[in-house]
Amino acid sequence: MLPGTIKYFSIFLLMVSLAWGSYGLIGAGTYPVALVNNKVVWGKEFKTTHQSALNFYGKLKNPDVDQPTFEKEIRRATLDKLIESRLIFEEVGRAEIDNQLANLVSQNPNLEKGAVLTYGIPWVDFKNLVLRPQIALEILQKDLQDKNKNFDEWLKNKRISASVWIFVGGLDWQDSQVVAE
Questions:
Q1: Residue 95 CA to chain centroid, in angstroms?
Q2: How far, in Å, CA of 104 to CA of 90, rounded?
Q3: Which residues does residue 32 pair with via DSSP β-bridges, in sequence order?
């Protein structure tokens, strides 16, 4: 081969490798859907949470509800809740969350089975996407209550001061909340 041909062939192989690598990363959900005070909400987390909400609420399906509107609202509410969780996690230590999670699991031996059946997601995802945020919320609410502070007021102020960027189409951050466009 000619020296120039090797150079172009190498560039071509590099471009193909980058394309396949990007495709693999996107397929695995390793892309940001939002940035909350410099903390990333990942695509996999958004997709899994959204799917579990659809699974859960799909079992309670109301025939009078317009399906596209319903799915759009679940998508909006999912991202809003993930953003809220990021704001709460800024205030609560991970060790405290993990300790309470361990206690909860040890006291409820059927929790794993019930969670997987109800939400239709793996146990690890359920712990990270449902239990940890709920435990963090409860810890923060108790801490604020002990300080005679109102959680709703705290959350409202935290949302107002938050720096939020949304990178997923059809959703936007307006007036301290996620809105569907």
A1: 20
A2: 22
A3: 42
